[in-house]
Amino acid sequence: MLLWAAGHTWLERIASTGWKEPLWVGIFPVNADGSAAAQSYIEGLDDRDFADIEDFVAREAHRYGKELTQPVHVALYPWLKRSPPQLETGTGLLGTALWSLKLRWFAWRTVELGGRAPPRIRMLVLYHDPSTLQTVPDSHGMQKGLIGVVHTFALRAMAGSNNIVITHEMLHTLGATDKYDPRSGTPLFPIGFAEPDRNPLYPQEKAEIMAGRRAVSAQDAQMPASLGAVVVGPATAAEIRWTRQ
Ligand SMILES: [Zn+2]
Predict the structure, then answer these.
(1) What is the chain's Cα-based Rg?
(2) Percent of the chain with pLDDT over 90
(3) 0.90 exceeded by the pTM?
(4) Span between the terminal Cα atoms of the chain, in Å
(5) N or C: which end of the chain has fewer CB within 10 A?
C-alpha cells in the first residue's frame, strides 16, 4: 500500500496543475448519517448542481490569462454505500498519516465508478441531515492522493455555499493554502481579501476562495451565498500555477 501510494503521488503532482487540458473532478456523494433526508437529497442531485464550480474556475482562470475553455470538468459519480475512514478530533501526527493512507486506499480502490472513466480528483461529499446537528465536521482537501472529504448539509438552500466548500477543498488538492486566521476564522490581509485595495476596506463585497469568507469588518466575516461572489486571489493563483510565483 505504501509503495503504491508513493508512486502515485509523484505522477499526480505533475499531471494536476498543467492546465493544458480539462481537469476531471469526480463528486462522490455519501449519506453521512444514514438519514432519509440526506438520502433523498443525494438521489435528487445531478451534474447541474455542480456546474457553478466549473463556471467559477473558468471565469477566474481566464482572468489570469489561462485560455482553456473548461479548466475543470465536474462530474457526478454514483453515491457511495460506505463512508470513508473518519479522522477523529485530537488525532496525533502518526494517526493522521495513517488515516490519510487509509483514505487514499478507500478513494482509489473501494470507490465504484459506475462504468465511468476515473476522475483525476476525487471529492467525497458527505451530506448530513440539518435537523440533527448544528455544525458539520471539518472538511479536508489533500494534495497527496488528490482527495477531498467535504462535510455539508443536505439542504437545497445551502447548495451554493456547499459548492464554495467543495471548491475550497478541491483547490487544496492542487496545492492552494488557507488564507484565514485559524484562531478567529477571519480572512488574512491582504492575501485573503478579494479587494485589498478597496476604500473603505470594509465591508468586502466578495470573498477570496481560500479565505472562504468575506470580511465585513475587522472582526467579522461571512460566507457568500454562492461562488458568484468569490474570487481566486493572486497568492492562490500562484500556488495552483495559474501564474508564476
Ligand atoms: Zn482550507
Answers:
(1) 18
(2) 80
(3) yes
(4) 34
(5) C
Q: Read off the pLDDT of each residue in 37-54 and give the average, rounded to a whole number.
A: 97
CA of 162 to the centre of ligand 1 (A): 14
141: DSSP letter: E
Where residue 1 falls among pLDDT bands split at 50, 70, 90? low
Residues 7 and 78: their CA atoms lie apart, in Å, by: 27
The CA 212 to ligand 1 mean position distance, Å, reads 8
Q: How many residues does the structure list for the chain?
A: 245
Q: Angle between the 2-16 and 93-105 helix axes, to the nearest 10 degrees?
A: 80
CA of 115 to the centre of ligand 1 (A): 31
In the reported structure, the alpha carbon of residue 170 is separated from the centroid of ligand 1 by a whole-number distance in angstroms of 9
pLDDT at 185: 92
The Å distance, Cα 177 to ligand 1 centre, comes to 7
116 CA distance to ligand 1 middle (Å): 29
List C-alpha distances in Å: 77 to 123, 140, 150.
Answer: 10, 19, 15
Q: Which three cell numbers stand for residue 222?
A: 461571512
CA atoms of 57 and 168, how far apart (whole Å) = 11
The neighbour count for residue 34, using CB atoms within 10 Å, is 9
Give the C-alpha separation, 158 to 127, whole Å: 11
Contact indicator for 22, 73 with CB cutoff of 8 Å: yes
Model confidence at 147, in pLDDT bands (50, 70, 90)? very high
- What are the tens digits of pLDDT across the range 160-201? 999 999 999 999 999 999 999 999 999 999 999 999 999 999
